[in-house]
Amino acid sequence: MRVLIVYDYGGPPLPYFLPVLRARARIAVYVPRPERLDPVERALLTAGAERVLLDDGTWDRRDEQETERRVVVAAQDWQADALVCFSELYATQTAGAAEKLGLRGPGAAGAERARDKLLMRDALTAEGLTNVRYRPLRSEEDIVALMSEVGGPVLIKPRRGMSAAGIQRVDRADQAQQVFASARQSLAGFDVPADAEGAFLVEELLHGDPDLWYPVPGFSDQVCVEGLVVAGEYVPVAITDVTPKVPPLTQSGHISPTSLDVDARRRVIDTAERAVAALGLDTCGTHVELKLMPDGSCAVVEIAARYAGRTIIPETDFAHGCDLVGALADALLHGTCTTRRFDPDSEPSRAAATVYLYGSECLGTHRTPVRFGGFAVHPAELVDPTVRIAGYAERERGWVVEDRVHEQPYWLAQLHLQSTSLVELRNSVTRVRRDLRLVPEDE
């Protein structure tokens, strides 16, 4: 069997998913934007794949039809039996290519509904699944009109964005024009080939209530559900808890398994199942984000027809004893489901977490800009005895820390933690986020 990977930003770490796929099939990789590969990625691709196809870059990257055509050509050249793409940027083009080639995939229409947040909202609304008021955003007048309708703050979002790029909050009507301009500028400065129109939508800002949902503190009002769809059947695998966000919207970390009680887990899974069904997906990984509302319901934030990024997939695999990348490969290659459905009554014996630390929460009394000089203590001094630091990275000394509207790509440190105790893992995550403080280079 042969698999073609379409590789770019997003999804599980390359060193994690490549060996899993290589164990199941012969692997080739198509890279639409080879100029953004760093030396480590190049070395991993060269060592891990039989063939690496680097595109020549002689076309408009915003032309998705041409991108899809090039994926088709690469797949035909490799005689691929399956196409795999973990990147949000190329999910629709890969889905379209698979459909043209008669291969399994999410389906072009379903992938487009997952990629375009306005189409997603329309599909959810048609199934009675959204309590978010929204509308297409063409000018600041649309922002003001929705604010008047909902009587409070709103969010503006790129219809086809990723990693929170371009998402901004508007609190007052007189901010609308300036914030919309800032959002467009933020998206333009993010290194992604956005859609040609740069279209946005505006939607009601929802406020959840984690205290109502969780028996213990330390979580945000949002959860994620990891899973996959196999021949149209949704298979939820895990609920991932989200630690409190760094204001205004940056996700700081994730913990698995969930600390929700059994009844709350069932409500989360029920909403995720209905939401995925509304998009009409066929075969793909999924990442569902839900808001935990004060009335006990779940509101859909968004759904991706691909696996989550960062280290959420390795975290899920460790905590739940599964192999999500392998299960996706089995589904795409053979049409079979080789992973277990989430059991709300189960209590896994292992736990894992990802923690990202940002300048705005690690600066203490220091003012930006400063140059990163490390931390006052090492993270290993802040974790409980059962907690192992399975992965750690921090910025190089001298890296400039400054105020940023969109902070998510500019973390100072990232930790991947593993433990046999969910309680000690939670405590360690809280301690690391609370006590790890930046030291400027010149001190």
UniProtKB/TrEMBL annotation:
MF terms (GO), sorted A to Z: ATP binding; L-amino-acid alpha-ligase activity; metal ion binding
Keyword annotations: ATP-binding, Ligase, Nucleotide-binding
One Pfam family hit: ATP-grasp_4
Top EC class, one word: ligase
Source taxon at top rank: Bacteria
Organism: Streptomyces spectabilis
EC number: 6.3.2.49
PROSITE patterns attached to this UniProt entry: ATP_GRASP
ATP-grasp domain ranges (all copies): 121-333
InterPro entries reported in the protein's UniProt record: ATP-dep_AA_Ligase, ATP-grasp
PANTHER family named in the record: ATP-GRASP ENZYME FSQD, FUMIPYRROLE BIOSYNTHESIS PROTEIN C
Signal peptide range in chain numbering: none
Transmembrane spans: none
The protein, known as: ATP-grasp domain-containing protein
